[in-house]
Amino acid sequence: MRPEILSLIFRNISSIVGIGPKLENLFFKLLNDRKIVNLLWHLPYNNIKREISKKINEDIIGKNIVIKIKVIKHIPSIYKKQPYKIICSFDKIEIYLIFFNARHPYLKEKLPINSYKYVSGKIEFFRNNYQITHPEYIVNDDQLNSIDRISPIYSLTAGLTNKVFTKTMKNIIKNLPELNEWLSKKTLQKYKFLSWKESLLKLHSPKNELDLINFNNFRKRIAYDELLAHQLAILIIRNMNRKKRGIKFKTSSVDIDKFINELPFELTKSQLTAIAEISKNLSNNFQMVRLLQGDVGSGKTIISIISMIIAFKSNYQSAIMVPTEILANQHFETIKSFLKNFKINIDILTSKDRGKKRHDKINNIANGNTKIIVGTHSLIQEDVKFYKLGLIIIDEQHRFGVHQRLAFTHKGLKPNILVMTATPIPRTLTLAIYGDMDESRITEKPKGRIPIITTSLLRNKINNLINAINAKIEKNEKIYWVCPLIEESNDIDAKAAVDRFNSLKKLYKNKVLLLHGQMKSDEKDEIMNKFKYKNYNILVSTTVIEVGIDIPSATTLIIENSEKFGLAQLHQLRGRIGRSNIESNCILLYKNSIGEIAKRRINIMKKIDDGFEIAEQDLKIRGPGEILGKKQSGIASFKVSDLHFDQDILQDVRKDSIKIIEEDPDFKSDRGKKLKTLLYLFERDIAIKTLISG
Length: 694
Ligand code: ADP
Ligand code: MG
Fold this sequence. Notes:
Layout (H helix, E strand, L loop, with lengths): L20 H11 L5 H4 L5 E4 L1 E2 L11 E12 L8 E7 L2 E7 L4 H7 L5 E11 L2 E5 L3 E4 L9 E4 L8 H13 L10 H7 L4 H9 L4 H5 L1 H29 L9 H9 L7 H14 L6 E6 L6 H13 L3 E5 L3 H14 L7 E4 L5 H12 L5 E4 L13 E7 L7 H5 L8 E6 L5 H8 L3 E5 L10 E6 L7 H9 L3 E5 L7 H19 L3 E4 L5 H13 L4 E4 L12 E6 L7 H8 L10 E6 L5 H12 L3 H11 L8 H4 L13 H17 L6 H12 L3 H9 L1
Parallel strand pairs: 2-3, 5-7, 10-15, 10-16, 11-13, 11-14, 12-13, 14-15, 17-22, 18-20, 18-21, 19-20, 21-22
Antiparallel strand pairs: 1-9, 3-4, 3-6, 4-5, 6-7, 6-8
The chain binds adenosine-5'-diphosphate (ADP) and magnesium ion.
The site of adenosine-5'-diphosphate has 21 residues, from helix 11.
């Protein structure tokens, strides 16, 4: 149970005075959550400073100031659109206070004639007069201290004003609980961290210049907490998995060897190593939780298929989960064809399956008829029950959340888990995100692969490509044409693709196909099949082809507006070609005026072909302020921490968490209890449940 001391900040936002259903929804839109605690993690990105002015001159126009004025005269508005004006004197000049839609009695009371007041707001110069429109503060001359000299600015959503947000935040931090310190003295001293509470107060309610200067240090304290909670949660779950009995497969190497020998290609050394590591995991009593990292096109699918054979030979079911329907279809076909000599029922389940069809499929999974099931998110729906699930494979992991997936195993069964990802990330980040999940890395490409030639081309020189494309069509090679990424919106992306499709059709007639996210899934399947098997050569598409698609005869990739893509995504897209021993070309189209970082990205793409190296470069060129977006980095981001900016603390967080788990695995010590509060604070409840149930 969550400690009582946290109950206040775990209440619904609507429990705060002044937050009705309308505001509650706006907060939800902003934070995707209704708990107060998530407001605390929403840090300001800037601040308004209000300085006391003794003089008014041109230099301070547009600034936020605090001045002491004397009220001279009220000029109420006569008609509706006219503002209410109050003439005041300051430093021998006149200054107007302007109010639109003002309630007259209220202003008369608030600013009586001849009174002295402190007012604060942005000073403007309008029709030869200094004025402040809607002063933020009007206080008596002995209440100067009640004016916030600094107030934070937050990124918000339409309809939610900064005023409302800061007011709400003030309300929250007034009652912030005092939590017992869970960080060690050593850590606190090393980083000069304040307490959790003090840090949050400084972040959300800075009092002076020094507080602003130290913003990042206060933030880092909270980032440390978040990363520590994440690390501990993963270690707890891992520890427990190691202790508990998993499913033991009886692997016969004869079956596997036979299968491998009959493959149409020779497996690479690292593929074989990965297979050996996996079979070892699968044949002992402990649950396997393994991350298989391998660059695009390095041949991960076949490894998953071999793992499924091992499960099948031991009479267990396997499930493979992928992020898109297109990929599910492709895997379904691939798996069926590789396993055509086995008597094995393989099925596919996606959101396309409804009604009786879905019902039948689910039944077959539940009664054990289906031995291998390929699917999208549909696989983890409540009513999908397995007969004997022994192996879960998650492909393209970067699209799914991490620790929820690990916890998936705690639903009674303890199947083995293989997570496959083609967005390689540096070792330090792997540790931060996954903890010490076992890891296999495929470090080489299949034999005979020729490096992809990557070039860049100004968008208005697109005509230079016509002949090259014709030559490719003549040889019946396939071309992906990826269309501009305009916004993260399906509609707009689709339009760009449709336009390009129409213009290419004029040139290449019936050789061109179109694919975008707005199409029905049947339609998408049909297009993919036509492109793969029929006499079509150009597929104009949005980024829906980004993950996993495997069509070996595709040898050309053209990316429009390549400057808008992140490195990880460009590399993913490029992975669609170079999947055979024919030379492949990637052409990055770009606009005339592109930024420095975009230029560097394109250059890196031209020079580097290796995904691991690209990932390292990606982190290096990110400028300050460029926070890792989900789409850009392929890594689900944390609430406060940023894996780029907080690399400096990652090592310490890891050392810290390992030590904690070693010394007090059950969190029984004094510090252990405090750390439990930390886990609850960052909603790692699953880890605590694991602690208790184990
Ligand atoms: P990814 O790692 O990106 O998922 P895939 O598993 O889709 O890559 O493999 C890419 C292509 O390479 C597939 O057509 C697959 O059959 C083929 N392949 C896999 N391993 C080898 C190998 N050792 N030699 C030749 N081709 C291979
Ligand atoms: Mg793949």
